[in-house]
Write a structure and sequence with these properties.
Blueprint: H1 4-9, E1 15-16, H2 19-26, E2 36-40, H3 48-51, E3 57-62, H4 65-74, E4 80-84, E5 102-105, H5 112-121, E6 128-134, H6 135-142, H7 152-160, E7 161-169, E8 174-175, E9 182-189, H8 199-211, H9 217-220, H10 228-231, H11 245-257
Helix pairs in contact: 5-7, 7-11, 8-11
Length: 264
């Protein structure tokens, strides 16, 4: 008999057993702008069963061999393809024959941020992203400037997606119960998801600024060798958590105009 607790323990994932929560997560998909969805970490299919009821072509991707076998035996639906693979290493360009798709799942806590970063890299094909994270991570992704939890993940995600924290999930609906609450969010890609600045420079500016988040930008961005004239700009007297996503874009434009290369 398949033991979902043992199967998921090494993957950093907790097994969701509350059907109402699973259905609620499934309903976070709006189906606007896509008719395909990739579920990451389906496990025993508690969420999968609700996704495949929708008018969607579904791929369920999991690393665990036993979970894959269970899904194959119990979910023979025509609109479901089951793939044994590591999402973080998988070439997403071969999924759904190049068509756009949404992502959803009960994401393993230990790789959830990496899942978001890969989604950002593949944003041309991913108009929507929903799913469950550790609560503090979900909140951080959706946080606005001025908060101590606002950071790299917040700015980079919100540069390309509108982020909404949807609801909190208590530990008791999992086996084994995690020690923290979980949170479900939805990301909807912005209509214009191309930045009006060098995107690689934008990523570098944001990451460098928050690596020393207590310092002003004038100090945290020293490695960019900014001109003295640019450093006099009032924006450099602020700390990174004070800047909105739009202001980070403007900051990047200023640095770009100052003649700074995207490479050190």
């Amino acid at each position: 008999m398949h033991d979902p607790v043992r199967a998921k323990k090494h993957l950093g994932q907790h097994f969701l057993h509350d059907e109402r929560i699973a259905e609620k997560i499934g309903d976070t998909l709006t189906l606007n702008g896509y008719d395909r969805v990739l579920e990451i970490g389906p496990g025993m299919g508690v969420l999968t069963k609700y996704i495949i009821k929708k008018p969607l072509e579904v791929i369920a991707m999991d690393l665990d061999t036993e979970s894959i076998a269970y899904l194959q035996n119990n979910y023979p639906q025509k609109n479901l393809e089951i793939v044994e693979a590591d999402f973080l290493k998988f070439d997403l360009s071969i999924l759904f024959k190049g068509a756009p798709f949404a992502i959803t799942g009960n994401f393993p806590y230990n790789i959830s941020s990496q899942i978001v970063f890969k989604t950002l890299e593949e944003r041309d094909r991913i108009p929507e992203f929903t799913g469950m994270f550790q609560k503090e991570v979900a909140q951080r992704i959706c946080e606005k400037e001025g908060s101590k939890t606002y950071g790299i993940l917040s700015v980079l995600t919100q540069a390309f997606y509108d982020a909404e924290y949807l609801f909190t999930v208590k530990p008791g609906v999992f086996n084994p119960p995690p020690k923290v609450d979980s949170g479900v969010l939805r990301l909807i890609r912005k209509e214009n998801f191309s930045l009006p600045c060098d995107e690689s420079l934008f990523f570098r500016v944001v990451k460098t600024a928050f690596q020393q988040r207590r310092k002003t930008l004038r100090n945290s961005l020293k490695t960019f060798n900014l001109s003295n004239k640019l450093k006099e700009d009032t924006i450099f007297a602020q700390r990174p958590e004070q800047l909105s996503v739009t202001e980070f874009i403007h900051l990047t434009q200023k640095i770009q105009d100052d003649g700074i290369s995207t490479h050190k």
